[in-house]
Amino acid sequence: MELFNPNSNIDFLGWRKVSIIISIILVIGSLGVIATRGLNYALDFTGGVLVEAGYTNSVEVDQVRAALEAGGFHNAQVQSLGGTRDVSIRLQPQADQKNADKVATDVLTALKARRADVALKRHDFVGPQVGAELKTNGIVAIVFVIFGIMIYIGIRFEKRFAIAAIASEIHDTILTVGFFALTQKEFDLTVLASVLAVVGYSINDKVVVFDRVRELFRMTRKAEPYAILNRAINQTLSRTIMTSLTTALAMFALFFFGGPAVHGFALTMLIGIVIGTLSSIFFANPILYWLGVSKADLMQVSKENPELARRP
Q: What CATH number has the domain bearing residue 101?
């Protein structure tokens, strides 16, 4: 199925100056927001109080969350514990909620105000040290993934492709994280996992375009980089859009019907899909063009091609 004519000749590279300027502004703005406002870390990273409660009869997670809101416990993370009667409640630490025993008592009071068939099963305090380790490990994981991608692209293609791919990955990651800093939506482990998924999704799309660039360079006798890069984007445009749409449909389903536990994951993926798709079209290839990629970069030097050996 082709949404766009693969033989079309839309001049995407003609917009490279505008697209790169917009990208630079967005990256600088995202870094500024991250530096000034920071991320709204969830209990996974900040520590807090963990309360487990059990009901005599079945209870909906939304009912528990509504009872906590009415009792003054806002933004509580409520999850079912493998059934319909037991729930786990995680609360971020507040200035007046440092005593875990008192918090657990207040939570039980709030829950009993709505339903009397609830009992406290256990409560515990989650220290911030664990959250600090998770933040550090998350940053290390993202850096490791990006570094691994750079090696992979450099081996499979050529160093100019690796530089363009890494620049795009850093661009996509910063903009995605910048969205959470701007909106102050909770940044928890599911969001961190989806950021890593965005990195993988984004590079997959760029590898498809880079593969087409390499094929066109090798198939064309007089390969002008500007024309080749434009043709590669045009020929892969349908695939790029279709992949983005089908993935976005799955994420929309998760967001609207998957429940609050996966909202962060689905939202991050949706933001990442939009950013990754646009960067594949308007960011990666312009970077590749400005790096001076040519047919000689993708051809092996041999006795039959001695002129390639003289290329700097």
A: 3.30.70.3400
